[in-house]
Amino acid sequence: MHGLESPSPESYTLTISKGTHFSAEAEMTSESRSISIKTISLTDDGPETTTESLTSTDKETTTTEFLTSTDKETTTISEMKTTEFLTSTDKETTTISEMKTTEFLTLTDKETTKTESLTSTDKETTTKSLTSTDKETTTIFEMKTTEFLTSTDNETTTISERTTEPLTSTFKETTTIFETTTEANQSSNGIISTNAYLTTSYQMTDEVSSYPSTDQSSTVISTTTLHECSDCDCIGRTNISSGVYNINVNGNSVRVYCEMIHGYNWMVIFRRTEGNVAFNRLWTHYETGFGKINGDFWIGLNNLSYYTNTGLRVMRIEMEDVDGYRGYAQYSIFLVGDISTKYKLTVAGYGGTSGYDAFSYHNNMKFSTSDQDNDVSPNKNCAFVNGEPWWHRDCARMIFTRDNVNELGWYYWDTGSYKPLTKITMMVRKPDIVDTSGCSDCNCVGNLTSESGVYKINVTGKPTTVYCKMKDGYNWMVIFRRTIGDVPFNNVWSSYENGFGNKDGDHWIGLSIINHFTSSGWCRLRIEMEDVLSYVGYARYRTFLVGGASEGYKLTLSGYSGTAGFDAFSYHNNMKFSTKDNDNDESATTNCALEYGHPWWNRDCTRLKFTKDDFNNLGWYNWYTGSYEQLTKITMILQKAVN
Questions:
Q1: Of all helices (H) and strands (E), which one includes residue 514?
Q2: What ranges in 232-371 are assigned the alpha helix state H?
Q3: Which of 392, 513, 554, 625 could form a disulfide with 375 if both were Cys (CB 3.0 to 4.6 A apart)?
Q4: Residue 525: which residues within 8 A CB-CB, separation 6 or more?
Q5: CA-CA distance, 568 to 496, in Å (whole number)?
Q6: Are residues 465 and 583 in the same domain?
Q7: Is residue 144 part of a domain?
Q8: What pTM, to 2 d.p., does this model score?
Q9: Tens digit of pLDDT for each residue in 360-389?
Q10: Which residue segment(s) compose the domain that 593 sits in?
């Protein structure tokens, strides 16, 4: 605290340093109508309760609140209550009503607008909207007047108070907002105390609350009692209706839209259903967020990074096309990196009814805008040329952010072709939390949850993590996946025997585990592939068995069907597994795994290429086109045979 100044007999200013807590006891004399400060104490130990002392006497009560906000340039917002006492005495009852004067000082780029509201009531509360406008900023507050009814009987004073609360704020640029709620307590000796604490302000851009900055330059005094919930899952335990809610993010109140559908509580992060918000914006807008939280909006890259890395990693995209068909794409893994990575995207685990997984094509990409080109297109900035900021690999597959709402779309929609979209909503939530420790396979996991993801099961008495994929009404287990390209696959024998990689992404589950499951009835194999032209095909086998270590994990394969064209895998039937340090192929002159960097059940060095480190050199011989095609995604999954 720097001190008290008395610019006039009726006005007092209290200046508070950020992070400082204070308490003061004041006394007003009826003769001079002046306030003297009796005691002041300072603390600096975090956002605990700070006390303003208010003195109550038989005849009058004076209340003074100080609110201070600092943001880049110094802006002071003071709320002063000037109390006028009208006293009527009837026997032992005294009624006192308060006339409240509120002054808002708004600092803008070009001019300052000052608005005053005077509201006086006798027994009822009047609500009045105040609007402060300049060319860049519109602020609307709903002010609820405070009414004091004081009844004196044997020196006992009862005071009830209703307080002010901001209703709506709309901004073109980022502005600091605060919420204020005053909690009055009456002590036995007639001293009224008001609780207050210092807190870092949060930012809002067009009503979208951003994750509270750790920048200590912006501070307000707030008396908001924050909601105990920190996500929509918590909100949904006591609320069943979708809508805008306040959540607690690191001690700050943040407004989010919670969607309570499909048996889960989702947080909406992106929505385009009305077409009244421009989305072709610059980097700073996409970083902080924009739009209206109950309409079309983007929640902000910094928010996405925070939320997805604190557990909200299941993402669902709901879409509707011009013919009214509705489809969705859901991902078990959706993560956004921080600013140091340019908000790099990690997305995997697709499922849904959208026909094609258009989003995973952009996996591992940094975010791009017209003023920050981070795509890998060699010839152009996709965000600038096409007017569509996104995590672009190149300028294809999905169009969500063009300003022209008639040009939105998802490649290879349910029809098998591009279809314009009229509605798009993206939302995130926490994954299912289920205890699968008693399970020994994905069928057991599927009885506990319908959500694909990584689960811990018990395999031959050992805890093991597997990726269970719930697809087409069946429970599959992923044994091999290459969709990202961030894991080397030209590995040695022990790595292929025990497994490697990330179960959420690219990985090999291990020959020993494959042997265990295929020997236990999990002998239906499906290989899903996508080529560079985005054609998706599959190869399915009725029998897939892998022998034990003593047999070199020998392959038994039969019963092909599918859309991959040529059965490239069965060519290697009855072969042992080979690696660069354990050659078991039939080539007379070459260790295929060593020579070509391709560990596999190799007969010779042909037909399919799944394990080369060069992600651009994967392939399936005689693909559906009748020729070799480069593959960009490969997933092998097992299903238990049903008698």
A1: helix 511-518
A2: 232-235, 283-288, 301-308
A3: 392
A4: 540, 541, 544, 557, 636, 637, 638
A5: 21
A6: yes
A7: no
A8: 0.60
A9: 889 999 999 999 999 988 888 999 999 999
A10: 442-639
